[in-house]
Amino acid sequence: MCGNHSSATEFYLLGFPGSQELRHILFATFFLFYSVTFIGNTVIIMMVCVDKRLQSPMYFFLGHLSVLEILITSVTVPLMLWELLLPGMKAISLTACGAQLYLYLSLGTSEFILMGAMAVDRYVAICNPLRYNIIMNSHTCIWVVIVSWVFGFLFEIWPVYATFQLTFCKSNMVDHFLCDRGQLLKLSCDDSLFTEFLLFLMAVFIIIGSLAPTTVSYTYIISTILKIPSVSGRRKAFSTCASHFTFVVIGYGTCLFLYVKPKQTQAAEYNRVASLLASVVTPFLNPFIFTLRNDKFVEAFRDVMKSCCQLLKV
């Protein structure tokens, strides 16, 4: 225990080590990633809203997934870019640190639930196509999205509250580019072992809990696809879920690496790399994964661009 030590009221984010030239290269790289993430996911949202061919549950969920990706990157990347552009440590208040951690974890939790729902949607579309419109009706889709958002923001209240109930008296230097929970726990001089264990169990509940319906759904999907007699039929069926499956592998792989571990206070380099994958690389890949291999989306996008060009000519 800390005894009479006082807790830090603000933190200093150390960001990325290295020379100023390296930091400028990282700034340019991450700024490009963030720009592509923001523009690409915004295009997906606009296309889902305006094109009637994309008015289906799969694209409805994809639109909300894109909203989550934009918000997740916006919570972390702008501050990271500011740290890279300007030399020196960046101060962040205790309140701002808690808000960033809460938003980051809440949005991530909502995304996991939505990914599980998208897997079930693909299962119904491929394994029960005749009942698809009945099961995945607009009422069901809206409730799934509401539950994913509400649950994500309610579930992460206690983990963040418990983290900031600790006394941070060892130091106020956070060796990260964001308010990472693992690095914050390293600064506490309280006995945080029990808290870490509870946080580990909650991470397991969310990640493994949302991964379970995904695994079951894809087990049935693959089994059903293999029973299709024609090669073209199997290819067409697999193409409808290949994008989501790719995103699931990348997203879950990264977060299993980052959060599902009993000891939260890992090395700074470990957490920094994993956080970059979760908050920068994965959202950057999302627009490419869900659009380049999707013929219906590409066709709709091409038609919208032609219409815009015709309007500009007039």
UniProtKB/TrEMBL annotation:
The keyword Membrane applies. CDD domains: 7tmA_OR6C-like. Keywords: Cell membrane, G-protein coupled receptor, Membrane, Olfaction, Receptor, Sensory transduction, Transducer, Transmembrane, Transmembrane helix. It holds the Pfam family 7tm_4. Gene3D superfamilies: Rhodopsin 7-helix transmembrane proteins. Belongs to the G-protein coupled receptor 1 family. This is Olfactory receptor. The lineage of its organism: Eukaryota, Metazoa, Chordata, Craniata, Vertebrata.
